[in-house]
# Entry
Amino acid sequence: MTRSVGLISPAVIPMIWKDLERHIVLYGKKWLEIVALEDVLAGLLKGEFELWLGVDGEDLDLVMICAWVRNSKRSDYYILWLGGDNLSEYLEEGLELVEHSACIRGATEVKFEGRGGWTRKMKSFGYSPRSGLAKNVKTCWRH
# Structure
């Protein structure tokens, strides 16, 4: 099959919500201790949250839910939740796309917070532990 990662339009959310909901319930138990599924759905539909998916054919393998924090002097893009099957197959491409998208839309940093294992994993992608994990994406490309 063909693997791909992409940003999903809010208009598509109602059509895929049941699959997405199952995925979040299965892999996001810790996140669901602080957020309600109804709030996730509402945020996605209103465009307050952004949904990135990694798929292999019709198989949903990666879910990333992100949000902007925009201020007059700085904007940051937060990965609120990340989970799924075969994350190692999608993580590099997924993060690269998220970072590039955030950069061209004005982000200073992409930020991610997670448990110890995530700190080690994300460090290999250039994220540094400051207050959470962050990677500066102010400059899109360096030659």
